[in-house]
Every structure is written in C-alpha cells, then in structure tokens.
Specification:
The structure is a single chain. The chain has 95 residues and is α+β, with helices and mostly antiparallel strands. It is built from three helices and six strands. The protein has one domain. The strands form two sheets. It has a four-stranded antiparallel sheet, with helices on both faces. Strands 1-2 form a two-stranded antiparallel sheet.
Length: 95
Amino acid sequence: MAIITSKNGISIRLTEERWKHIVLLHPNLADKQTQVLDAVKDPDYIFRGKADELLAVSKLSARVYLVVVYKEVKRMVLSLPHMTPQMYDGYLKRS
C-alpha cells in the first residue's frame, strides 16, 4: 500500500487491490504507479468532477496527460487515471 499527501494536504491511500483493479482496466499504466501517485501529490491542474471527485492532471508530454480521479475523504478512492487530450481540453474550457 502506498500513502501520499494530496496537494490539499489530505492523506491518500492506494491499496494493492485498487492498483490491480486500475491496471486491469488500464494495462498501459502497469509501470506508472509512481507517476499516478505523483499526479495526486503535485498535479499541474486540479479539477472538481460532478460527484465531488477531484481530477489531478499531470502533463506527461506535449499531447499526453495523466488524469487521476480520486476523492479526499477518510478512505481513498482512486480510479481511471487516463484521459485523451480532447477530453482534457473539455475540462479546461469548463473551468
């Protein structure tokens, strides 16, 4: 289990079970756990989702963004950490 502190100072846990679930849905992230955690710890942008979730966005390259969806509550929820540039542009236009 990994425990980090979010940009907002909240402790976030990523359990092995949750990580396995993420990698099952997004196998391209299998070797990127550190980048996923870093995105929550020190994102380039943070957006608020529709159901009180937060979207931590880290720019990996000119056209690639890593988006980690999580909630800042007593227990961490972390899933779906990937977004296409077109989806990201939609969030920029909303804020």
